[in-house]
Design a protein that fits this description.
The protein is of the alpha+beta class and about 170 residues long. About 25% of the residues lie in helices and about 35% in strands. The chain contains five helices and nine strands. A hairpin with a 4-residue loop joins strand 2 and strand 3. Helix 1 packs antiparallel against helix 2. The radius of gyration is 16 Å and the shape is globular.
């Protein structure tokens, strides 16, 4: 990611709206989302090398139904379902199974993975986010919420254990 980044402007935007939409800050500052994540306050983000894609995906397949999200400038697509195991073939990580989540991921393009634990519109939000070499989001996997909009305790426990293991 070779782009001029004014970290002071990003930090000021985060300070002004610490629980806001990070993609909005990236658009406002004309930087990749990764540049904004790198300025989150201590403890809100754990950075993991994208080479650990298979390991982290494998862990996520044990979480049950998650919220799978793709956020571009044109769409925020959300799908609830379990993450199927995948296999590598023909340049893709191929996922198929008994889930609405399926398709083909260029896992080799994943350069960084972020475990994010921060407030979002006043509520705690926990996610595992996958980024390409341009610093743009490939997709995100969120800990789901119950009917009262609380994070599911079993998934939250798994997220926290993964975050602690990756931070060590």
């Amino acid at each position: 990611m070779n782009i001029a980044v004014d970290v002071e402007k990003i930090r000021a935007a985060l300070a002004a709206k610490p629980d806001g939409v990070l993609e909005a800050i990236a658009r406002q500052e004309n930087v990749p989302l990764r540049a904004v994540l790198s300025e989150l306050p201590a403890g809100e983000a754990v950075f993991v090398d994208g080479a650990r894609f298979d390991e982290i995906w494998g862990e996520l397949t044990s979480w049950g139904n998650v919220l799978f999200l793709i956020h571009t400038k044109d769409i925020v697509a959300e799908v609830e379902g379990s993450l199927p195991a995948g296999t590598h073939g023909q340049g893709y990580f191929n996922i198929h199974g008994d889930s609405p989540i399926g398709g083909h991921i260029r896992a080799a393009n994943c350069k960084e993975i972020f475990l994010i634990d921060r407030l979002f519109h006043g509520r705690r939000s926990c996610s595992v986010q996958f980024f390409n070499g341009e610093g743009e989001s490939m997709f995100k996997v969120f800990v789901r919420r119950d009917k009262e909009r609380n994070l599911l305790p079993e998934q939250l426990e798994k997220f926290e254990a993964l975050k602690a293991r990756m931070a060590a």
